[in-house]
Structure formats: structure tokens, C-alpha cells
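Troubleshooting log. The previous structure file for this entry was overwritten by mistake, so regenerating from the original sequence record. Sequence copied from the archived sheet and checked twice against the printout by T.R.
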Amino acid sequence: MNDTATPQRSRTPAHLWVVGVLALLWNAVGAFDYVATQLRLEGYMSQFTQEQLDYFYGFPAWAVAAWACAVWFALFGSIALLLRRRLAYLLFTISLVAMLASTVHSFLLSDGAAMMGNGGVVFSGLIVVIGVLLVWYSKSMTTRGVLR
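Regenerated output below.
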């Protein structure tokens, strides 16, 4: 008999599928927003004022890169979560760090708060909260042995 301890994988809880699918949908919307903005899709961007468009299109390269990392790492993290891979935790963590860098640009280094109004500020806060929750959830599932 082999005495080496092998990590036992926990049974996948039903809530992982719910969280994973919701995270995938949420982050797919974020990825679409990023792509639509970068490609300047007229149908999507027509909802914004010219002043807002100038603001979005004037982001410095580092802020665009942070935004890209935030949305794509979150999307890949959602996929990794659904595949029950512990890599989800790392991907969500990188996404959160990039999201915070993007938030620093929007609210500390530019006039993003004035540009987006109170609703935009609240929504940006919600995005950060969801990012924190996804990091926590993926870490929790890794610790419990659900993610391998």
C-alpha cells in the first residue's frame, strides 16, 4: 500500500456552476465592451456623447493595456473556473490588479468620475466588488480542493 498522501478532490458543488456561468456571462459583456470601444463600433458607441467618446478614445496606452488585461484575464478566469482549474484564482487575481490600475486612471488621474456621472461611478464600484468576490470564491474553491 502506498502511504503517500494524494490530495483528494472534493465533489463539485452546484453553486460552482451557477457562479461560473454568471461570471462567464458578466465577463463576456466586459470583453464585448472593451472590443466595441477599441474597434469604435458605431452602433455601440452611439450611446455616448462626443465628450465621453473623446475621453474613452484618449486613454493612455497603459490604461488601455490595464483594461484589456482586466477583461481578458477575468474572462479566461471564468472559463478556468468552469473547467475546475485552480488557475482561475491566478487569472482572477491578475484581472483584479489590472482593474484597480484602470480604476486609478479613471478616478484619480483623469476626470472619469465627472465623465461617467454618479451611475458610472457606482457601476465601476460594482465591477471592483465582483472582481474581489471572484478572487475570493476561486481561492475558496481551490482551498476546498474543488479546483485542481
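The two ends are 24 Å apart (CA to CA). Archived copy saved in two places this time.
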